Input
Amino acid sequence: EAFFRPIASAGPPSPTKRHTKISVIGAGNVGMAIAQTILTQDLADELVLVDAKADKLRGEMLDLQHAAAFLPRTKIHASVDYAVTVGSDLCIVTAGARQIPGESRLNLLQRNVALFRNIIPPLAKYSPETILLIVSNPVDVLTYVSWKLSRFPSNRVIGSGTNLDSSRFRFLIADHLDVNAQDVQAYMIGEHGDSSVALWSSISVGGVPVLSFLEKQQIRYEKETLENIHKQVVNSAYEVISLKGYTSWAIGYSAANLARSLLRNQRKIHPVSVLAKGLYGIDGGEVFLSLPAQLGRGGVLGVTNVPLTDEEAQKLRDSAKTILEVQSQLGI
Ligand code: 6V0
Output
């Protein structure tokens, strides 16, 4: 006898609410923080984990499944076989060699490109319509590598880029001004990490442009403080890694936030790594770096035409040049 006496079938799937499937590749610190944030925020009907280490993967899957009584209902699977990702709406790639304390992100590259040759083609094969969200570092170059390896249109290949740097930036500005970080509009763009560009001229709090406010009030222009905030943002990852060995919670929220905008078609603007060729005078080749981009169900819907000072635009082009030089050595 059935456990439930059936009264009605669940009926056909709602035409307005689709079944949503997210795959997270790499069940390390970052992948698991992303997975758990996705679960607590009820972003998927199905969550898939893939990793190369079968035991660790199964352990992580069981540990998450055991929280089912406290979470919105999400079917969780895990496998070392990419067939499990079939039909994903979003694939978030965090697999990679871990950044060793003091190691620059660019040094990680060769190790990670080799991994990506085994990861991206099967993802594209099993989910030809998926959006790829790349998190592994160096994220801008690996987003380019993923675009090439997947042969997807560029609107469906996104790097988490400076979304995290920008939230660190907003936290530090909010802390400095003693306001809520959600009221701080501030963007870091360009390369995720060392050569990121802070857009000081467009920072606003509650709609008030911060720089001109400080100038109008004749509050001493705190150039040094601002420069220190930027330095702190750039050092953030290195500091956390040297203290706890890896970063996880903030990137978990950052990636889940991107997943929400993409899958729920929020049309929200996020600084993420997108194909930037032809924008802001970047003309040296195909390069992904972060610009404020509008995200929705189709992936990257557009890029905001944010006014840059000459200095900011030059820094952006310098980042592009650095990334292109690295890419030219990859043979992709
Ligand atoms: P981790 O804890 O070492 O996890 C990496 C995982 O990848 C491990 O579980 C590996 O077993 C797995 N893996 C390795 N090779 C494969 C493969 N071929 N297929 C499937 N899985 C594989 O590292 P952690 O989770 O701390 O970091 C992951 C990546 O995220 C690194 O490249 C970080 O530099 C990067 N980050 C990017 C951030 C961003 O803002 N873009 C932020 C934080 C970390």
User: Anything to note?
Assistant: The pocket of 6V0 is lined by residues 25-31, 50-53, 94-96, 98-99, 115, 118-119, 135-137, 139, 160, 164, 192, 246-247, 251 (CB under 6 Å).
